[in-house]
UniProtKB/TrEMBL annotation, chain A:
<keyword id="KW-0067">ATP-binding</keyword>
<dbReference type="GO" id="GO:0005524">
    <property type="term" value="F:ATP binding"/>
</dbReference>
<dbReference type="GO" id="GO:0030956">
    <property type="term" value="C:glutamyl-tRNA(Gln) amidotransferase complex"/>
</dbReference>
<keyword id="KW-0436">Ligase</keyword>
<dbReference type="InterPro" id="IPR036928">
    <property type="entry name" value="AS_sf"/>
</dbReference>
<keyword id="KW-0648">Protein biosynthesis</keyword>
<dbReference type="InterPro" id="IPR004412">
    <property type="entry name" value="GatA"/>
</dbReference>
UniProtKB/TrEMBL annotation, chain B:
<dbReference type="Pfam" id="PF02637">
    <property type="entry name" value="GatB_Yqey"/>
</dbReference>
<dbReference type="InterPro" id="IPR006075">
    <property type="entry name" value="Asn/Gln-tRNA_Trfase_suB/E_cat"/>
</dbReference>
<keyword id="KW-0648">Protein biosynthesis</keyword>
<dbReference type="InterPro" id="IPR014746">
    <property type="entry name" value="Gln_synth/guanido_kin_cat_dom"/>
</dbReference>
<dbReference type="GO" id="GO:0006412">
    <property type="term" value="P:translation"/>
</dbReference>
<dbReference type="GO" id="GO:0070681">
    <property type="term" value="P:glutaminyl-tRNAGln biosynthesis via transamidation"/>
</dbReference>
<dbReference type="InterPro" id="IPR004413">
    <property type="entry name" value="GatB"/>
</dbReference>
Automatic annotation (TrEMBL), chain C:
<feature type="region of interest" description="Disordered">
    <location>
        <begin position="71"/>
        <end position="99"/>
    </location>
</feature>
<dbReference type="InterPro" id="IPR003837">
    <property type="entry name" value="GatC"/>
</dbReference>
<dbReference type="InterPro" id="IPR036113">
    <property type="entry name" value="Asp/Glu-ADT_sf_sub_c"/>
</dbReference>
<protein>
    <submittedName>
        <fullName>Unannotated protein</fullName>
    </submittedName>
</protein>
<dbReference type="Pfam" id="PF02686">
    <property type="entry name" value="GatC"/>
</dbReference>
<dbReference type="GO" id="GO:0006450">
    <property type="term" value="P:regulation of translational fidelity"/>
</dbReference>
<dbReference type="GO" id="GO:0070681">
    <property type="term" value="P:glutaminyl-tRNAGln biosynthesis via transamidation"/>
</dbReference>
Length: 498, 502, 99
């Protein structure tokens, strides 16, 4: 049962073949079984999950009309506030903090009857591409426990690929949903900026952050997408428009006559051969399904990484200023006669990890008087050029595609001493964030050289998220029939799977 | 060496710059839905947004935008077709996010002016204060310092924070530098703040209570040698909390700067704090290493682009400018300068105007409000508007007197009754049985009775000593319980005693 | 080749309220050269006349009505406080500046 898709679980629940309490127990058992190896979760709240499940079962028994995901378990990235449940964003500075409020995403999940199993590990404050920057230790890739699951939503991606949960929520500031989805062989979507409320999402970079769904299939991911998306008056950057029909698109999966643009700048040098091979193969499949493949040119993408590593650190240097030991979270250095300022200094020294400090310092520098125009100001202008590149490309194609990550899952520790090498992991995902559009990663197979999953990235214009699912579903169906099953079924067993 | 003010202005010209912070009187805070009510229990008006809990996001209060545009229009400003919020980054425990959402290079209103008039040696003179910008921001929380002397921050062991005020909408009004005021700099500054206060009150966008901090003034002062065009170093005196203090603080700073300069010392660019008790300023934070605020556009908020039609609608709703209104009322009511000033000082202009609009004679309306009613208000330590007597009541009383149904003396009793909550003037008249005695027969009976009782005095009057009649009139009034018309009593009495009555 | 001296890093750390050991300052200063080189690429293009984008969606005038909603209870507001007294957040002495 736990290897089924969420859609299948939903059908079983509806037919009464299983209760949500039973389904939740199966997943809690699986977590107890494999999470000591995978370390996807920071906090599992079995009791509260079973209570939620029991409530859904009761509602179902009383004949109440339930949404399709009612009673389905889910893993929640620890970056989202959940009332009364420890929420740390992977940082020591928030150890033990229990929010007195629910994020909008959590409120929507609860309203839909989704059962929240617990909070998943992540790079501290979502800063990283490997989940090694967590203040609580790394998460391990279920495909190879010596490798990272990517990041920053590595815990969520690992939980789904290790069958600890059929669905998960992540957040994507520079690729933090799509890259771990690629590295763990699952589906991950970064919705259009403003499509999912950021209220209660602990901010890393406000103009880039967006929460989104993970699933093992395109349809599952769409079902979760539909639950969490929608306008929220508590987020002033939330788009007031109907949610795109993503589930319908995932069910149709037709690409006949669709133009698919391959971005010249997001391939070639630096892309692993197995990654490039799977990507090209997927293009051929899409062409065989009736899509027209065109080449598009996005020259300013070459500067996307540089712009991102100015904009995100700048915004984070300000967003993370609130962690100051005054109102919540860690407080250290409170010796006799210590001033508020020295307590702030010592708490932030003790509570923040290396990468977070590095980005805060970089952002402080980029915003400081005398450097603003050269760094932050220029980066914001590059952002305009990237938006223009996309605009032009979308006049030539309905969706754009690239490999999600230039490389497959890398070894733990391999890049952690070299920030620049780590930053390159997001080279293909970052342009989407800078432009505020939407993107999906879905499994394109395994790279020959290391037998690890490769992700195929699809990008669509703002609020055209349904196109991702339409193309994704078509490609997925063709690949699944070619492989004789979902890619994830090829993942190695981790323990006594039930 | 202590300098006199005359010494200072003989040698130096002051250059002013004024920053006024106004708390708007919206129901909810600038970026969240917490109440703005003053004086609540600590931390009862806070939420994830104004406590800066992780994940919380700001959303702009529409009313605050409207109020700020109204202020900008009243100060003759341009309204920006496109403006943005920015983050001003600095750490301070009373500011939960450790940045203030403010506006930086794109304020919502800019380039305005206010004209103020003051008395000079050469008569009334007008000064134009140019406005650089009007922008929106948010207030901070309140700290209570524990363990030090007198609750001050210096020497305190620790502090206690209440964030009820954090996030209250603030509007900051910044002038361009104001040169050319010469020795009148303190008066001009005071007149400017007073004019601002009146304008804001007329717009009904703020309580403008300096003593409660809803209007706060920071005064920048520098001196330059007369004839020089090189600006001196300025000091910035914070939170000057009354009109009188504005004047005192500027005068004091001018003298302090001049003493330093005369001694060949330098004025430090720093923040100073005005001391109500001494009228002097005390050194605060030095600005030698200017704080780097790292302003950048607030990414959680989108630009403000007020529609031109909306701006015109707000422009059309602008109330009359206070200075013009004062001039108009003074002429319409034919009020002498001194009485006009008294009315303005007593904050009675609105209430008197309302009374006049209800049909009362302007002089009568003014006399009632500034006389008897003000006296009672003072006694009760209440503002005129806080008494339970309304312009409608006063207009009714004036009408009753004009109709001869009340004497002035009786009218005072009616005023007392209304203020005591006994009802409308006619209800008080009825309940208390107040009535002018118009019956000459009844009056004559009283007069005869009094003249018999005080035969000696009556004889004096009979013999032509008219001033002695006063005592008899008083006695008759007493006899008729004050309900008689004193003029009629006098007429009848003098006639009775064989004297002419005029 | 860009660089950021140890003293510059120290100044930034102070601005950002992060205490740093001598070793950290030196380490970060040595790393910053290559990071700054990487990000300085944004200056390679001629950006004259290009508008800055600070927000990816072209939105404006998003406001809320001036209506009061319930606040947190003081217990909730103070639930994360490292120290509290008299229903207020207790913080170490604030030095330097009077209000
Ligand atoms: Mg200000
Ligand atoms: Zn609030």
């Amino acid at each position: 049962m736990i290897k089924n898709t969420a859609a299948q679980m939903s059908a079983s629940l509806a037919k009464g073949e299983i209760t949500s309490v039973e389904l939740t127990k199966l997943h809690l058992d699986r977590i107890a079984d494999v999470d000591p190896k995978v370390k996807a979760f920071l906090h599992v709240d079995g009791e509260s999950a079973l209570n939620q499940a029991a409530a859904v079962d009761a509602d179902r028994a009383s004949g109440k009309k339930l949404g399709p995901l009612a009673g389905i378990p889910l893993a929640l990235k620890d970056v989202l506030a959940q009332q009364g449940v420890p929420t740390t964003a992977g940082s020591k500075i928030l150890q033990g903090w229990k929010p007195p409020y629910d994020s909008t995403v959590v409120a929507k999940l609860k309203a839909a009857g989704v059962v929240i199993l617990g909070k998943t590990n992540m790079d501290e404050f979502a800063m990283g591409s490997s989940t090694e920057n967590s203040g609580y230790g790394p998460t391990f890739n279920p495909w190879d426990l010596t490798r990272t699951p990517g990041g920053s939503s590595g815990g969520s991606a690992a939980a789904v690929s290790a069958f600890e949960a059929p669905l998960a929520i992540g957040s994507d500031t520079g690729g933090s949903i799509r890259q771990p989805a690629a590295l763990t062989g699952i589906v991950g979507v970064r919705p259009t900026y403003g499509a999912v409320s950021r209220y209660g999402l602990i901010a890393y970079s406000s103009s880039l952050d967006q929460a989104g769904p993970f699933g093992r299939t395109v349809l599952d991911t769409a079902m979760l997408h539909e639950v969490i998306a929608g306008h929220d008056p508590r987020d002033a950057t939330s788009i007031n428009a109907p949610v795109p029909a993503v589930v319908a698109a995932a069910k149709s999966g037709d690409v006949k006559g669709l133009k698919i643009g391959v971005i010249k700048q997001l391939q070639g040098d630096g892309y692993q051969s197995g990654v490039q091979a799977r990507f090209n193969e997927s293009l051929e499949i899409l062409a065989s399904l009736g899509a027209e493949i065109v080449q598009v040119d996005c020259p300013s993408f070459e500067y996307a990484l540089a712009a991102y590593y100015l904009i995100a650190p700048s915004e984070c240097s300000s967003n993370l200023a609130r962690f100051d030991a005054m109102r919540y979270g860690l407080r250290t250095g409170e010796s006799d006669g210590a001033s508020a300022e020295s307590v702030m200094n010592s708490t932030r020294e003790a509570g923040f990890g290396r990468e977070v400090k590095r980005r805060i310092i970089l952002g402080t520098y980029a915003l400081s008087s005398g450097y603003y125009d050269a760094y932050y100001g220029s980066a914001q202008k590059i952002r305009t050029l990237i938006i223009e590149d996309y605009k032009k490309a979308f006049t030539q194609a309905d969706v754009l595609v690239s490999p999600t990550s230039p490389i497959t899952a890398f070894k733990i520790g391999e890049k952690s001493e070299d920030p620049i090498a780590m930053y390159l992991a997001d080279v293909a995902t970052i342009p989407v964030n800078l432009a505020g559009i939407c993107g999906m990663s879905l499994p394109a197979g395994l790279a020959e050289e290391d037998n690890l999953p490769v992700g195929f990235q699809i990008m669509a214009p703002a609020m055209q998220d349904q196109r991702l699912y339409q193309v994704g579903a078509a490609l997925e169906a063709a690949l699944v029939s070619k492989w004789g099953g979902h890619l994830i079924s090829k993942a190695p067993a981790l323990g006594g799977a039930k | 060496m202590a300098l006199s003010y005359d010494d200072v202005i003989a040698k130096y010209e002051p250059v002013l710059g004024l920053e006024v912070h106004v708390e708007l009187n919206t129901e909810s805070k600038m970026f969240c839905s917490c109440s703005t009510t003053f004086g609540g229990e600590p931390n009862t008006q806070t939420c994830p947004v104004c406590l800066a809990l992780p994940g919380a996001l700001p959303v702009v209060n529409a009313k605050a935008i409207e109020s700020t545009i109204k202020i900008g229009l009243a100060l003759n400003c341009q309204i920006a077709p496109h403006s943005r919020f920015a983050r001003k980054n600095y750490f301070y425990p009373d500011m939960p996010k450790n940045f203030q959402i403010s506006q930086y290079d794109e304020p919502i209103c800019f380039d305005g002016f206010v004209d103020v008039e003051i008395e000079t040696d050469e008569g009334p003179k007008q000064f134009r204060i140019e406005i650089e910008r009007v922008h929106m921001e948010e207030d901070t929380g309140k700290s209570l310092h524990v363990g030090g002397a007198t609750g001050r921050i210096h020497g305190a062991e620790y502090s206690l924070l209440d964030y009820n005020r954090a996030g209250i909408p603030l509007v900051e009004i910044v002038t361009k530098i104001v040169p050319g005021t010469g020795k009148y700099a303190p008066e001009v500054a005071k007149a400017y703040v007073a004019e601002l206060r009146d304008i804001l009150r007329g717009l009904k966008v703020s309580d403008v209570k300096m003593e409660q901090g809803s209007l706060r003034c920071d005064a920048n002062v520098s001196l330059r040698l007369i004839g020089s065009d090189v600006l001196g170093t300025r000091s910035e005196t914070k939170n000057v909390n009354s009109l009188r203090s504005v004047e005192r603080a500027i005068r004091g700073e001018m003298i302090r700067h001049a003493e330093l300069l005369n001694d060949g010392k330098k004025v430090k660019q720093e923040t100073r704090h005005f001391q109500e008790d001494t009228g002097l300023t005390r050194s605060g934070r030095s600005k030698e290493q200017a704080e780097d605020y790292r302003y950048f556009p607030e990414p959680d908020l989108v630009p403000v682009a007020p529609a031109a039609a909306w701006i015109e609608e707000l422009r059309a709703q602008q109330p009359e400018r206070p200075s013009l209104r004062r001039k108009r009322l003074k002429e319409q009511w034919a009020v002498p300068d001194k009485e006009m000033a008294a009315m303005i000082n007593a904050d009675a202009l609105d209430i008197v105007e309302e009374t006049v609009l209800l049909g009362a004679d302007p002089t009568k309306a003014r006399t009632w409000w500034l006389g008897e009613i003000s006296r009672i208000a003072n006694e009760k330590e209440l503002a005129l508007t806080e008494l339970s007597i309304t312009p409608k009541d006063v207009a009714a009383i004036v009408a009753l007197v004009a109709a001869g149904e009340l004497t002035d003396k009786l009218a005072r009793q009616v005023v007392d009754g209304v203020i005591a909550g006994e009802g409308t003037p006619s209800e008080v008249v009825a309940k208390r049985g107040i009535k002018v005695v118009n019956d000459d027969g009844a009056l004559m009976a009283a007069i005869e009775k009094v003249c018999a009782e005080q035969a000696e005095t009556a004889d004096k009057v009979r013999n032509g000593h008219v001033p002695a009649a006063g005592a008899l009139i008083g006695a008759v009034m007493k006899e008729t319980k004050g309900q008689a018309d004193a003029a009629r009593v006098r007429e009848l009495l003098l006639g009775h005693l064989g004297q002419a009555s005029n | 080749m860009s660089s950021l001296s140890r003293d510059e890093v120290a100044k930034l750390a102070a601005l950002a309220r992060i205490e740093m050991s001598e070793a950290e300052l030196v380490n970060l200063s040595s790393q910053f050269g290559s990071i700054l080189d990487a990000v300085a690429r944004v200056q390679e293009l001629n950006l004259e006349g290009v508008k800055a984008t600070s927000h990816p969606q072209p939105m404006e005038n998003i406001f809320r009505e001036d209506v009061v909603q319930p606040s947190l209870t003081p217990d909730q507001a103070l639930s994360g406080a490292p120290a509290q007294e008299e229903q207020r957040f207790r913080v170490p002495q604030i030095l330097g500046e009077a209000e």
